[in-house]
Amino acid sequence: MTIAMRRETAVLSLLMFVVFFHSLATFGQGARVRITAPIDNTALVLVPRTHHPLASAANDLGRVTGNSAMNRMVLVLKPGDEQASALTRLINDQHDTQSAAYLNWLTPEQYGAQFGPALLDLEQVTSWLQQQGFRIDAIARGRQWIEFSGKAS
Questions:
Q1: CA dist list (Å): 120 to 36, 40, 73, 83, 113
Q2: Structure confidence by residue, pLDDT tens digits, 43-99
Q3: Confidence band for 150, pLDDT divided at 50, 70 and 90
Q4: CA nearest neighbour of 24 among 119, 114, 98
Q5: Comparing C-alpha atoms, which of 95, 109, 103, 115 is closest to residue 141?
Q6: In this structure, are residues 144 and 60 in contact, taking their beta carbons and an 8 Å threshold?
Q7: How many Cβ atoms sit within 10 Å of the Cβ of residue 15?
């Protein structure tokens, strides 16, 4: 092995070492807690453009009974503005051949730690759903959604 090849290998090894430890530091920080007060069932917020296009007055068949099964409902959790910006930067870096993050893909758990809700927020949301009588069926490994089921009542 020539001196130039050894130097190149050493530089590459150092670069990988720095990227690895930077990733560990970033993943260890976790998401910022966004639910800072108890969840209040009387404080309702209308979220625009979140209903299915077929959910209209023309298709309304009336009330369902309280015993009607509501299966496989999915609550999608939106990242914070800071997380969304960081995700855009990461995606751009992962596709930039000059970036240390080039092709450095994340596992779902790493994605969740960086771009999903804080674990405390996730616990509060799942606890609230259970208090409303729902069963938690699944939580995405990347923390971006919660699947739950229950009765209409």
A1: 10, 17, 22, 16, 12
A2: 988 888 888 899 999 999 999 999 999 999 999 998 889 999 999 999 999 999 999
A3: very high
A4: 114
A5: 109
A6: no
A7: 11
**How many domains are contained in the chain?**
1
Beta-carbon count within 10 A of 28 CB: 8
**Residue of higher predicted confidence among 74 and 4:** 74
The answer to whether 105 and 114 are in contact (CB under 8 A) is: no
Range of the domain at 83: 3-55+66-151
Confirm whether 60 is domain-assigned: no
What amino acid occupies position 2?
Answer: T
Residue with tokens 């369902």: 64
